Amino acid sequence: MGISEFYAGQTLLITGCTGFMGKVLLEKLLRSCPEIERIYVLIRSKRGQSATERLESLLKSKLFDKVRNETINIQSKIVPVCGDIVEEKLGLSDEDIQILSQQVSVVFHSAATVKFDEELRLSLQMNVIGVKSLIELCHKFKKLKALIHVSTAYANCDKNVIEEKVYDPPLNPNRLIDAAEWMDNDAMNSLTVKLLGNRPNTYTYTKAMAEYLILQECGDLPVAIVRPSIVGSSWKEPFPGWVDNYNGPTGLLVAIGKGVLRCMMGNFNGTADILPVDIATNLMITVGWHTAVNKPEKLMVYNNTTGQLNKFTWGQMERFSYEYFMKNPIDEIARVPNPRFTKYLLWKDLNVIFDHLLPAYVMDFYLWIVGRKPIFVKIQDKLWKAVKSLEFFTSHEWKFANDNINMLAEHMTAKDREIFDFDVRKIRWGQYMENYCLGTKQFVLKENPQHLPKARRALQKLQRMHFLMNAVVFMVVWRLLINRVSVAKSLWNLLIGWALFIFQKIPKLARST
After folding, report:
1. Measuring CA to CA, which of 300, 470, 497, 506 is 20 to 30 A from 121?
2. Which Gene3D superfamilies does its entry note (predicted)?
């Protein structure tokens, strides 16, 4: 049975469908599995918008253009269910639970907090307790054929080699859940650093706990875990370069393109394990099919990464981002893009002082003089808080096993491998990064492509100003050296002497020829 054929007539439940991956998953299911019976989407009310209003707004976005053109009345297939993963029973009413338990056959759980600096309590509520509530709910589903949980490839980033299995966490999740009930926020926050150990943040810590919790409490549920690495813009579907948030590499690209991020810690030759979002969602759909149809005897884990099969480095990230933002500059840039990754802390610190903070203070001083509000120092403060949370991943490298991914591909038909393509070996990183940079401009920064000529002229102007300022600084420094250092003065006189000598010889050489 093919993948689309399997999903025909099935009723699905998706959590996190308003998130980056959830949106792409929903769009792909609607477009490539048009015979799906119904998709329930768990959505919470937010900022005065009801679950229904948020879903309607989502379906009107550009991401769903193809679906709207190809599918008749897509809203009839999608049913919003008001709920929240941090609430008891996911915030579902008894009536909704009854309906879901009678109808749902496949569950995709992608709801989570992906903030690296999230407080432990909230991260625990969303990434662990939410999973626990979902498992309890799924035990009531009478037709359940597959429960696909989205984790992260970095859940076990305290290890160098990561197999496709669930590892024991440093602490039993239920013990931490029990402790969180009586601990106040100050106590939780004070314990966070000790609890994290070698993990860099609460996100990876709670994701590891969630995996173990699933293993312990899933019982006979047909569960699989998918671990995507650093999720970036789309590769092909529904169109190249689609992205709608600042998370992960997208935030770096925006900062690089605007010229405000110029140096950060990173292994130039290290693997930047960036994974296109459409590859991640294609794998999720395929795993759902395989779990339901082939019924594996044990819980399967899939490391969805690129590094072992099609390596992309932070050095390439530096080169491509510079090349494509110089070719297609962002509309409003502060400085000429010039990104650099370094593994030397001292060099990075010097760059932060002289190439980030000092120019920021100079530009803020100028804004203050002309009567405008200084902003660049605040931008740098926010930038470095974000960069600091990413430097662990840009400075380390892991080896991920991919055996289950390879096995999965072998079970697919040629047609399914084409429709639900997750073969990362096909990615051409140069083309992908160009589309990523363009997508960042268009979909994240909401820039009009027709403004590109103006942006290029602005960049050229900045380049001339940059050259002029460097020349002025060089001349001032050199003049000071000449006046104060005898060696510099002697060197200057020597250079001038040689220059005059050469100019005197040129006419004689011309006459002799």
Report:
1. 300
2. NAD(P)-binding Rossmann-like Domain
Phi, psi of 72 (to 5 degrees): -85, 125
Regarding whether 77 and 170 lie in a shared domain, the answer is yes
Burial (0-12, 13-18, 19+ Cβ within 10 Å), 474: exposed
Number of domains in the chain: 2
> Do the beta carbons of residue 35 and residue 41 sit within 8 Å?
no
CA distances (Å), 299 to each of 22, 165, 166, in order? Answer: 22, 8, 9
Q: Which residues pair with 40 in a beta bridge?
A: 13, 79
Q: Are residues 405 and 476 in the same domain?
A: no
Q: Is residue 241 within 8 Å of residue 435, measured between CB atoms?
A: yes
The neighbouring-strand residues paired with 183 are none
CB 351 within 8 A of CB 263: yes
What residue numbers bound the domain in which 87 lies?
Answer: 3-242+268-309+399-417
Q: What is the pLDDT of residue 425?
A: 95
Residue 12: which CATH number? 3.40.50.720
Residue 141 lies in a domain: yes
- Contacts of residue 416, defined as CB under 8 A and 6 or more positions apart, other chains included, come to 2, 3, 4, 286
Measure the CA–CA gap between 426 and 163, rounded to whole angstroms: 23
Instruction: Name the β-bridge partners of 357.
Output: none
Residues 502 and 408 in one domain: no
- Token pair, residue 41, equals 């989407």
The CA distance from 327 to 319, in Å, is 12
Residues 182, 197: Cα–Cα separation, whole Å = 22
Share of the chain above pLDDT 90, in %: 52
Task: Look at residue 507 in the predicted model and tell me its pLDDT.
Answer: 57
pLDDT under 50: residue ranges of the chain: 509-510
Distance, in Å, from the CA atom of 247 to the CA atom of 70, rounded to the nearest integer, reads 30
Structural domain includes residue 357: no
253, 436 contact by CB (below 8 A): yes
Which H or E run contains 376?
helix 376-395
Task: Report the predicted TM-score, pTM, of the whole model to 2 decimal places.
Answer: 0.89
Question: Checking DSSP bridges between strand 106-109 and strand 11-15, what pairing results, if any?
Answer: parallel
Contacts of residues 50-58 at CB distance under 8 Å and 24 or more positions apart, as own/partner, are: 50/82, 51/80, 51/81, 51/82, 51/83, 52/80, 54/18, 54/80, 55/80, 58/17, 58/18, 58/23
The burial of 252, by beta-carbon neighbours within 10 Å (0-12 exposed, 13-18 middle, 19 or more buried), is given as buried
Distance from C-alpha of 248 to C-alpha of 243, rounded to nearest angstrom: 11
Give the model's pLDDT for residue 408.
94
Distance CA 255, CA 334 (A): 10
